[in-house]
Design goal:
alpha/beta; Rossmann fold; 6-stranded mixed β-sheet; 8 helices; about 30% helix
């Protein structure tokens, strides 16, 4: 493991040289997800430029970089919202097309956005099963069964403090409780990979600690995660590997044991 090094503080107005693009680490075994030579264009603007990115089994990857680095574009590509212009995607070693949300869900990918994709006016139960409702043999929603399963999810899948009624409207929950409901939904539907886009930005200190603990627990249960964050201290608490992006390209990649928070910070501020 690298030891911390004292960083040189640039003088005011000094030019900080940008990092050069890199290919990064090659996976040592067949990864859970891999994007090879991905490019995403919007007209003449190149949002992702020959990007390589992979997520291993039982791994938490920190996706880092300043605003405009391309992190959200990459997350949207993986989640099926914005398919790539060119490049290849592999899931468990098999070439896969991810062109929409249905494709990403079929690949076992769940995205939890900064603003949390929950409906405040609906109950916890309805939010958990939204788009995946349990129906009876006549095709009507089986509310009793969904309520029963929701109670089990709240009590076992992810321990959510302060929630004992699945019929409670989501609008009355705190930010941390909403994040926990979104994670519980992903866990129940057996997602292999979670994409967490700035999940701690609106949370209290205690809620942030709980969320990061969920990510660690999910790793033990076999769910990999990608954590997009500006808070490098949060990233170092849970991530196994770090990828730094700048202007749609990968400029730094290292495993936690091979780098320091100071080195990662240095590469982030260069973006």
């Amino acid at each position: 493991m690298k030891t911390a090094q004292k960083l040189r503080q640039p003088k005011a107005g000094a030019h900080i040289p940008a990092d050069k693009p890199i290919k990064g680490e090659k996976p040592v075994e067949v990864p859970l997800f891999e994007a090879r030579n991905i490019t995403k264009r919007y007209g003449s603007f190149v949002a992702l430029n020959d990007m390589n990115f992979h997520i291993g089994h039982n791994e938490v990857v920190g996706l880092l970089g300043d605003n405009g680095a391309g992190k959200s574009t990459l997350v949207k590509m993986i989640s099926g919202i914005n398919p790539p212009t060119s490049g290849d995607i592999y899931v468990d070693g098999k070439k896969t097309d991810i062109r929409n949300r249905s494709d990403s869900e079929a690949a076992g990918i769940e995205t939890i956005y900064q603003d949390i994709a929950l409906v405040d006016s609906m109950s916890i139960t309805r939010n958990i099963f939204m788009g995946r409702e349990i129906t009876n043999r006549w095709g009507f929603m089986d509310h009793a069964k969904m309520q029963e399963v929701a109670i089990d999810i709240l009590g076992s899948a992810v321990q959510i403090s302060g929630i004992d009624d699945p019929g409670k409207e989501v609008g009355f929950l705190s930010g941390g409780q909403k994040q926990a409901v979104a994670i519980a939904r992903a866990v129940h539907f057996k997602r292999k990979m979670l994409l967490l886009d700035e999940p701690t930005s609106a949370l209290s200190v205690r809620e942030t600690e709980h969320l990061l603990a969920y990510v660690r627990d999910l790793k033990k249960e076999g769910t990999s995660s990608v954590l997009v964050t500006h808070n490098l201290y949060h990233a170092f608490m849970v991530c196994d590997r770090f990828v730094v992006m700048s202007h749609g390209k990968k400029v730094f990649e290292a495993r936690k044991g091979d780098t320091t928070i100071e080195e990662v910070t240095d590469h982030v501020i260069r973006t």
